[in-house]
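Narrative of accomplishments. A recurring question from our advisory board has been how the design workflow behaves on a single, concrete structure rather than in aggregate. To address it, we present the structure tokens for one chain from the evaluation set, followed by the sequence designed for it. No filtering or post-editing was applied between the two.
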């Protein structure tokens, strides 16, 4: 079955860096665009970054442009999010997401999330 497992979250001081990973299994990872989302307490889940299936194109929310970098390794079925110059407002649970074509249609899959806390 499809599984997405995030890791790499933690507590970091403002200005620090973290690298999140999302290990994918149960589907042909290299055939799908992938996304990172985040959800802060009391707020709706928001799209952070998108990467195409080959990694040839990326897109970012304005709030993270220039600070975050999404990437992927299709040989390892893994998605990454490098987060630099972190701010307290980046505090959230971060999720990876895939929309996978099944025999009955497209189904959306989420990982369990990894907590990122930016605080001094």
């Amino acid at each position: 079955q499809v599984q997405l497992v995030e890791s790499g979250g933690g507590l970091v001081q403002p200005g620090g860096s973290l690298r999140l990973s999302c290990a994918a299994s149960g589907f042909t990872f290299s055939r799908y665009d992938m996304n990172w989302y985040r959800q802060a307490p009391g707020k709706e889940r928001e799209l952070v970054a998108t990467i195409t299936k080959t990694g040839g194109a990326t897109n970012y929310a304005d709030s993270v442009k220039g600070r975050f970098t999404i990437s992927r390794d299709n040989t390892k079925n893994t998605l990454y999010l490098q987060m630099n110059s972190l701010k307290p407002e980046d505090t959230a649970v971060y999720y990876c997401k895939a929309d996978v074509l099944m025999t009955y249609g497209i189904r959306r899959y989420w990982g369990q999330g990894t907590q990122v806390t930016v605080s001094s």
